[in-house]
């Protein structure tokens, strides 16, 4: 990990939903990561459903959760928050893409060598591009 600055404080990571941070790959591709706090630890996944990977689990206002699982709002896939395993829905059996983070002294650090931290909050999106934020139900 190049950047030893914390992404955010542990207290800023919700237990009932998720918050978004932005990361960048070595190919300068920006991605969103969702963070969720559970039992004093933080779990992080790429903000991408495994049914249609351009669809975020957290659309910017925190992921919907039911009984410890994230619910994709588009077609109702359920993902265990701690394992990323899809237990129900069109991508049942798939796993969310994990991102390595660590909690130290009350702060959350990105420790995944595949990504660099960019900032907190959702990526800026083109509001005319409905593919990334669509709530279309099928
Ligand atoms: S895009 Fe998430 S369940 Fe279809």
UniProtKB/TrEMBL annotation:
Single GO MF descriptor: metal ion binding
Keyword Repeat: no
InterPro entries: Rieske_2Fe-2S, Rieske_2Fe-2S_sf
Residue stretches spanning the membrane: none
Entry keyword Ribonucleoprotein: no
Annotated Rieske domain residues: 29-110
Superkingdom of this protein's organism: Archaea
Alphabetized UniProt keyword annotations: 2Fe-2S, Iron, Iron-sulfur, Metal-binding
Protein's UniProt name: Rieske (2Fe-2S) protein
Organism expressing this protein natively: Natronosalvus hydrolyticus
